[in-house]
Amino acid sequence: MLKGIAVVWMPVQDIDRAKNFYGSTLGLSITKEDGDWAEVDANGLTIGLNGREPAGAQSDGGPVVTFQPEASLEDTVSELQNQGVEVPAGISEHPWGRVATFKDSEGNDVQLYEPPK
């Protein structure tokens, strides 16, 4: 069902402060930036710095593991829903791609991500 991890999202309140911490303090490369969003290369793992999906899983704090589905985002969301997984906000569209947010069995936020075409 999943290819692997696409990105780990770190929710931030101040994007400039976060970029300074991950870039200057930790010495990691900021690879992409767009307004209140940035990507950091952590030895091949992408860490995304941005706010949470406002209509997503509705929780505070903590990172969000984002997986890349093997099939289309719609097919994967449908398959999860058939297994009883709730996807409260459905699929949301953004300039940087499409996401579907849900909870794992322990209440942690998880997303599916599909890059823009």
Summarize the structure.
The protein is an alpha+beta fold and 117 residues long. The protein has helices spanning 15-25, 73-82, and strands spanning 2-11, 29-34, 37-42, 45-50, 64-69, 91-94, 97-103, 109-114.
Main attributes of the structure:
single chain, 117 residues, alpha+beta, 2,3-Dihydroxybiphenyl 1,2-Dioxygenase, domain 1, eight-stranded mixed sheet, 2 helices, elongated, Glyas_Fos-R_dOase_dom, Anthracycline_SecMetBiosynth, Glyas_Bleomycin-R_OHBP_Dase, VOC domain-containing protein
3D structure, described in words:
- By secondary structure, this protein is an alpha+beta fold.
- It has a single domain, classed as 2,3-Dihydroxybiphenyl 1,2-Dioxygenase, domain 1, CATH 3.10.180.
- Helix content is 18%, strand content 44%.
- The chain is built from two helices and eight strands; from the N terminus they run βαββββαβββ.
- An eight-stranded mixed sheet has the order 2-3-4-1-5-8-7-6.
- Strand 2 and strand 3 (37-42) form a beta hairpin.
- It is elongated.
- The mean pLDDT is 85.
Average of the residue pLDDT scores: 85
- The low-confidence runs, each spanning 5 or more residues with pLDDT under 50, are none
How many domains? The number is 1
**How many strands, which pairing sense, and closed or not: the largest β-sheet?**
8 strands, mixed
Q: Which class in CATH terms?
A: Alpha Beta
CATH architecture: Roll
Number of helices: 2
Overall radius of gyration: 14 Å
The CATH topology label is 2,3-Dihydroxybiphenyl 1,2-Dioxygenase, domain 1
CATH superfamily: 2,3-Dihydroxybiphenyl 1,2-Dioxygenase, domain 1
Domain VOC: 4-115
Protein name: VOC domain-containing protein
Pfam families: Glyoxalase
Organism: Rubrobacter tropicus
